[in-house]
Amino acid sequence: MPRDSELAVVLVYPDLLGTYGDRGNALALTYRARARDLPVRLIEVAPDETAPETADLYLVGGGEDVSQALAWETLKAEKNIIAALRGGASCLAVCAGFQLLSREFRDRDGKMVAGLGLLDVVCARIPDRRAVGEVVAEPVGIPALPTLSGYENHQGNAVLGPDARPLGRVTRGLGNGDGQTEGAVQGNVVATYLHGPVLVRNPALADHLLEQAAGPLAPLSDEAVERLRRERIGAALRDDTRQNSGILHKLRAFGGRMAKARGA
Amino acid sequence: MSQRPSSPDRGLRLRAALGAGRVASALSRRTGRGSGGVIGGRVVLKVQPDTPRLLAQGRRIHLVSGTNGKTTTSAMLTAALGTLAPVASNADGANTPPGFVAALADPAEQVVLETDEGWLPWTVRNTHPASALLLNLSRDQLTRHHEVGKIAVSWREALAEVPTAIGNADDPDVVWAAMASSQQVWVAAGQWWTQDSVACPRCGSRCHRDGVSWTCGGCGLSRPKPDWWVEDDDLVSSDVRLPLQLPLPGRFNKANAAMVVAAAVHAGAEPEKALTAVREVRTVAGRYAVQEYADHRIRLLLAKNPAGWLETIQLISQGDAPLVLAFNSQGVDGRDPSWLYDVSFRGLAGRRIVVIGERAADMGVRLKMDGLEYVDAGRRVRDALALLPPGQVDVLANYTAFQDARRELAHAAGQ
Asked: Taking CB atoms and an 8 Å cutoff, what residues of chain B touch A70?
């Protein structure tokens, strides 16, 4: 659709919050925007730079414990990003980013600390296992989306309060740690534990975020992405990629160890 | 010669273990299941779990570890130390205990052990190495290792027991871990992938980079003064300047060679002789090998993780040969290829690209997001080659895709 000004997308601290290909979410957004002739500008903000307050969409990615702690030190004092998000700018937060936007999260020392509070969510820790593997979820928070596909690798959980809705209901994977819900949606903030990257694997979610900022977009089908979605959802439903599932997993793990011993 | 264990009982059990291992290896070879080294090693460890420690006693063990470059660097170090005395090594890249057994069973006085980065603490405890050559640490198989920082912590604890660390001065994780050893030899081996060393491994504050130097803003941990470095194609120390002139391509192989010569000189080798030996390493477990198939000259390149792909894309972007990108996601590849988006593929613009492998669809979409055109040829290298004009082709593959491609081309050549 025609638009007078560029859509401004901010990638927040990509060198700290970018452990699992989170840059791919920015690429998916810009790719799908430009495919509709929607002018878009990607702004990467480092922790020692000032973020714009008036951008349309903010992307907050995932990171290891130490990187998350470093990002938090800066983000909690970053008035422009906080003001923009409180003012209703769109946001995608993934994994560590999900936790930073929550009401309360567990820091690297194991203490529960207050997050930005943009999501009525408390993020602690899954007590007994790490969630690793393909995820399939049926949409809840944004009902118009098709089935959600992604890959999770985390030990954080998420308990949603009444103001947040889950992004999806998992049919494969652990999601928020309860094996039932995945992610959270509140206002214009979408949060998830899904990598993949999630906006590459779920172009309708990318379009949802773009439309929040820019209004309705023309349909855009992408056969290469659709094929990838079919492959990944099919693989997850056959349960041949979950790392923590029964005898099949044990056999595969043994095969993997043999291959590794042979020289990976 | 290796020193034999003193206890008769343990000696008997060790001999029995090695005998059983030889039988298992021979059976494995007879039945066409590979070289048999790994299965033999597994049998040996079942019969006598203490074998690595017993066989390592009294020998000069040198470990080589890091995320990228282990196998090539181990081959180079084996060659360089060979100028001093015979060397045994796990040259096939089997870099966990079963592979160590096969290497240690060779009675050579010196042993080079390529060591999986996750197995370094175990290997230090069980072989008491004289030195550890530490290349780099970056994200790899995150579905298995989860966090790079935790590997650095485990290295730091283990390296306190290693007399000398030959460390990459440009990698903060390596430097902090190597500082636990009694003595360090620092090599400016470069670090082009910096995303996993943004936070200081010692205190968690931010590491600031300025050109090649780096300093932690919190605790002051900083780049040590290198003892060896590379200038253009010269290897330089305070005492020598030698032209590298390596047959292997890429700036990362210059860095690997620099670390090897530093390690070999520390072990007593003459620099010129060590470097001459390193230059004899031309292909390592099929890597960089050029094969002819039908009308194509195929160069096989391995890249396993973002740092590896970054370097290899930089290397091949200097040419214009068509490319086959082969991509799998078996356990040893890492199940989650999201990291493809950590690397820019734009350096491949203008090249003809065919994607193959179990995760060809992921690779294709990745290229598309960078605005590149590609064709998906399914699983086989031959089907990819059939789509490309005669002449040179670069095949760039991750770990199991690389093994698949080698097997397929060897099989095709034998037909």
From this structure: 198-199, 204-206
If asked whether residues B139 and B170 sit together in one domain, one would say yes
- Residue A195 appears among annotated catalytic residues: yes
Q: In this structure, are residues B41 and B240 in contact, taking their beta carbons and an 8 Å threshold?
A: no
Q: Are residues B200 and B158 in the same domain?
A: yes
Q: At B3, is the pLDDT very low, low, confident or very high (cuts 50, 70, 90)? A: very low
**Whole-number Å distance between alpha carbons of A70 and A111:** 16
CA distance B103 to chain A (A): 13
Q: Round to whole Å and give the CA distance between B96 and A262.
A: 9
Alpha carbons A204 and A104: distance in angstroms, whole number: 29
Whether residues B340 and A24 touch (CB distance < 8 A) is answered with yes
Instruction: Give the best-scoring range by mean pLDDT among A128-132, A205-209, B149-153.
Output: A205-209
pLDDT(B241) > 90:
yes
Give the CATH number, domain containing residue B239.
Answer: 3.40.1190.10
| Per-residue pLDDT tens over the stretch A100-151 | 999 999 998 899 999 999 999 999 999 888 999 999 999 999 999 999 999 9
* Active-site residue, selected from the candidate residues A91, A95, A123, A154: A95
The candidate with the shortest Cα–Cα distance to B142, out of B330, B335, B399, is B335
Q: Is residue B253 part of a domain?
A: yes
Q: Which residue in A has a C-alpha nearest to residue B98's C-alpha?
A: A261
Residue B239 and residue B158 in one domain: yes
Collect all residues of chain B within an 8 Å Cβ-Cβ radius of residue A256.
Answer: 330-332
Domain CATH code at residue B302: 3.90.190.20
What is the distance in angstroms between the Cα of A1 and the nearest Cα belonging to chain B?
21
Burial of A125 (0-12, 13-18, 19+ CB in 10 A): middle
Q: Please give the average per-residue pLDDT across B110-129, as a whole number.
A: 96
Residue A163 lies in a domain: yes
* Residues with Cβ within 8 Å of residue B8, at least 6 apart in sequence: none
Are residues B264 and B379 located together in one domain of the fold? Answer: no
Q: Is B284 within the bounds of a domain?
A: no
Query: Which structure tokens are listed for B338?
Result: 């999201």
Q: Which value does ipTM take for this structure?
A: 0.90
Tally the domains of chain A.
1
Residue with structure tokens 């299965």? B39
CA distance A91 to A244: 31
Among candidate residues A91, A123, A154, A195, the one labeled active-site is A195
Alpha helices in B51-147 (DSSP H): 51-56, 70-81, 97-104, 120-127, 142-145
Q: Do B258 and B294 have their domain in common?
A: no
* Beta-carbon separation of A66 and B199 below 8 A: yes
Instruction: Dump pLDDT digits (tens) for B263-310.
Output: 999 999 999 999 999 999 988 878 888 889 989 999 999 999 998 999
* Residue A17 lies in domain: 7-223
**Whether residues B16 and B88 fall in one domain:** no
Q: What is the domain extent for residue B12?
A: 1-49
Nearest chain A Cα to B400, which residue? A264
Residue contact B342–A23, C-beta within 8 A: yes
Q: Is A133 in Cβ contact with B335 (below 8 Å)?
A: yes
E strands present in B67-206: 87-89, 110-115, 131-134, 164-168, 183-188
pLDDT the model gives residue B226: 98
Residue A95 bears catalytic tag:
yes
Residue B215 lies in a domain: yes
Q: Confidence band (pLDDT; 50, 70, 90) for B36? A: low
